[in-house]
Specification:
CATH class of the largest domain: Alpha Beta
InterPro entries: 6-PGluconate_DH-like_C_sf (IPR008927), 6PGD_dom2 (IPR013328), HIBADH-related_NP60_sf (IPR051265), NAD(P)-bd_dom_sf (IPR036291), P5C_Rdtase_cat_N (IPR028939), Pgluconate_DH_NAD-bd_C (IPR015814)
Strand content: 5-15%
Strand order of the largest sheet: 3-2-1-4-5-6-9-10
Distance between the termini: 61 Å
CATH architecture of the largest domain: 3-Layer(aba) Sandwich
Number of helices: 14
Protein name: 6-phosphogluconate dehydrogenase C-terminal domain-like protein
Number of strands: 10
Family: Belongs to the HIBADH-related family. NP60 subfamily.
CATH superfamily of the largest domain: NAD(P)-binding Rossmann-like Domain
Shape: globular
Largest sheet: 8 strands, mixed
Length: 348
Amino acid sequence: MPTMPTMTTMTTTSPHATVAILSIGQMGAGIASLLLAHNFRVTTNVSTRSAATQSRAASAGITLLSSDTELVATADYILSIVPPKDSRATAQRIVDALAQVDRGDKAALWYLDLNAGSPSSARGLSSLFARDEEEGRVVFVDGGIIGGPPTRSPSSSSSAAAENETWAYRPGIPLSGPHSLSSAPIAGKHLASVLNTRHLNSEIGTASGLKACFAALTKGFTALALQSFTTAGEMGVLAELGEYMDVYNPGARERAERGVVGCKGKAYRWVEEMRLIGETFAMQGGFVGKANVFREIAGVYQGLAEMVEEEGGEGLESAEGVVGRLGTSLREGRGDEKERVVKEDVAL
């Protein structure tokens, strides 16, 4: 393992609590900055991360740890912020680490699963912690993150006083489960406020379901824009489509273009999320076997993710660039499939 860089100290006062974040991606780093500015100690396990990632985390003031057992032994809270496909493995890592650690007389460890999921997947994660919860070692909270990473106001610096006014934007974090974060004994009320949380009800799965419903309207719209723009481009009428949108659906083109450009590096994360949205709509909404829309939308993001992985990100700075490259990629691989669909239509 590479040598860990020295952490930059951001405050000399005693921190409110220790919050571990898994992992420090774009969202995790943004939330870490928010917590550090409000005098929380933030830790993460970097044993499998690159030296560059470790350096960035340390320079931001995050305490770098070398194992999950060390993380579990010292944390008051754990925020799981990973791709949906990794949420269960991450939870299992913490369960395994807890089995190896004696936390002594420390209060129960609060585990907040903030990953995109479904009510069913949230309940499955909760079940992993059932024994630890029964023994009073863990409190599991279902959650989700709505919006982008926190950002500071232009006038504030990294060492600014920790006031809400210094933050231009904070995502919303709905939570659910038998225990409200604000009731946690170690600065729980303050942490709940800083993270901009809202406790919905006592049911595990409600927060994940709300997040799924919200994401369906945002990421679902972007998937439709990808298909619409790509198809219009293949027919040579992408510019005309944009013109009609400006006149008859003002604002939609700009929103769609931002989504198309912004999703290219996230598409691989969204494949599983779309599947889980479909699961939510089927099981909670009652659409079992009636409208597998998001199973197909998962395929849209899968195709984009594969294109980006195979060809790289060059030339994808604009919506035209993204859908142009996607159209070419689809055209090159769709010959046999298109012929099959045409034959089926004729048979009907």
